[in-house]
Amino acid sequence: MQAWLRDVVFERFQAFAGAGLGVCIGFALVGALDGIGPWRAAGAIGALAASQALAFPVAARTSGAAGPAGSAARLYRDLVFVLGLAALAAIGAAGLHALVQVGAASAAGATGAGATGAAWVAAAGLASAGVLLSGHALRPRRVRVSQQRVAFPEGAPALRIAHVSDLHLGNGTGVVRVERLVRQTNALGADLVALTGDLFDGPAELLAPGARALAGLRAPLGVFAVLGNHDVGLGAERVARALAEHAPDIALLRGEGRRVDLAGGALWIGGVDDPGRDWTRGGHLPALAALAARRPPGVASLLLVHRPDAFPEAAELGFDLVLSGHYHGGQVALPGSGGRLGPATLLTPFARGVHRRGDATLFVSRGIGYAGPRFRLGSPPELAVLACAPAPEAAAS
Q: Count of domains in the chain?
């Protein structure tokens, strides 16, 4: 079930989301009208679902454009998102109220219950809309720095890695915010910086200024990056050219690896492009085996790959540490649940944080930006610092 949700629904999220939101809005509107009739009600709900399944993906694609068209698309997308989820809350409240009122004995009691139910439904919808709008307007912009400890194989070097993922520059993340993030990352004094994809998610006009902002990243061992599915959607070659021209010191790893030498040993860093839609079906990423064949023996390895679903295969191929992003920690998760209760946990066992499989370790960042609506709840932006050391040192620290 989890694989089906990820490979079918999530890969076509905008269309499914539009249809679902249309159904919720349709049910809420039909419920507010008296005497509309079952056939007209079904037709109205179906028409709203079909229209939103077509319109929502168009708005999502246009939302990254500059000028009035992009602004209108973002407003439309966010408004439908909020109205749809508010309608879902109202429908849930109405259903709960109906269950509570089952068995009401008198006509007077039923009338009173109906008035109370209408007020309850309205209050639930308004409260839900208020929460959602607050999550949008007051979404956390401050990037939280998380500290992680990772065990490397014995004899591997000790180092600190600053991990940045999912900027989505152009969709709620602007150049000024990236410049602030660059200064914050540099101030951490990590040995190397890893960027795990979805750097861009907006108009092509932002590629050059965005790349120039990222060019400010500095680390003694270098800055390494891979492309995510949104970069590929914008145009992998276009993004690669912008980085090569405006951020030449960023090593973009596209099915290749680099060896870096430290006082305590060596580290081999490999990375692959995200191929785009549907590759996770079957859990196999062909580029990984070819990359693993180039890995030098007896050297600790770091793999950068946008989607954490590659981790089981990467672990089998012998990669020691894998850094990923993609899911934004769900972008929405129930506060206080540690991210365990959110949409991402329906899609993958690797929604956020540290995971182990044999001797291999995966860290999944919550990312910086937004996919789709610019909304975060219970999953704040994250800049991770990973302290990597051989197993005895990591356990003792």
A: 2
Report the DSSP beta bridge partners of residue 267.
Answer: 260, 300
- Residue-number span of the structural domain to which 79 is assigned: 2-137
Please tell me the pTM assigned to this model.
0.77
For 263, the 3-state DSSP assignment is: coil
Domain-ending residue, one of 137, 155, 183: 137
Contact 77, 56 (CB under 8 A): yes
The domain boundary, picked from 86, 112, 137, lies at 137
The CATH number linked to 250 is: 3.60.21.10
Query: Using an 8 Å Cβ cutoff, are 216 and 178 in contact?
Result: no
Cα dist from 17 to 10, 23, 65, 217, whole Å: 9, 10, 21, 36
Yes or no: say if 242 and 216 are a contact pair by the CB < 8 Å rule. Answer: no
pLDDT of residue 219: 97
Residue ranges of the chain with per-residue pLDDT less than 70: 1-13, 31-35, 61, 63-66, 82, 85-141, 277-283, 335-341, 392-397
